[in-house]
Design a protein that fits this description.
With about 200 residues, the chain is an alpha+beta fold. The protein has two domains: about 90 residues, Endonuclease/exonuclease/phosphatase (Deoxyribonuclease I, Chain A); about 100 residues, no CATH class. It is built from five helices and seven strands. A three-stranded antiparallel β-sheet has the order 1-3-2, covered by helices on one side. The protein has a two-stranded antiparallel ribbon with strand order 4-5. It has a two-stranded antiparallel sheet with strand order 6-7. Helix 2 packs antiparallel against helix 3. The longest helix is centred in the C-terminal third of the chain and has 22 residues. It starts with a strand and ends with a helix. About 10% of the residues are buried. The model has no long low-confidence stretch (mean pLDDT about 85).
Length: about 200
Amino acid sequence: MACDFNIRDSFWDPAFSHHSYLCDNLLIVADSFNLELLCPTNNVFTRYSDSNSGSNSTIDLIFLRSGSRELNSHSIIPNLQLSSDHALLTITIGITEENIDSFKFSIVKNSEEESRFIEEVLHTIKSINTDDLVNSFKLEEATKSLASRINYAWKINSKRIKITKRFKSWWNKEYNNTLNTFWSSRSWENWKSFKHKVKAMK
């Protein structure tokens, strides 16, 4: 969160001797979003007056997620303000590589596996003995049993598939066949048919 907050306060502006309740309110709001105020590497003003009678101030602030390693690394660069009366605030945030699971379990829409899964889930729900749900303990026990049986039904009917950069959750055999029809014929009509189906599903 970065902005010209237009709040002068001694908390971030050493040239200003007063403390404002607006500062407290801003910090409370930022904290509610798990954000912390950044400390600049160089303690200079962020806004510069365009007249001799005016005073320079620090009213531009940056907040980052609490616990971030970059919390004390942003810089104020007054000589890059160009025609603005505000200095440039810069920060470099490194992006680390993230391991994302490239596989997921899925059931193809309108497949035999989907029909079997739905049938087993319905059978499981119908077989719940509601007469025995006399207290919260029994209810929780029945809920856990229901979840376990549905998870098992999913496990035996779903298939492990690889997620690629071109992975689309809505893609099925019908789209594959339509696309293959186009590739074999290269006809404009088959291409329009394929695009129409994809657009309708999206």
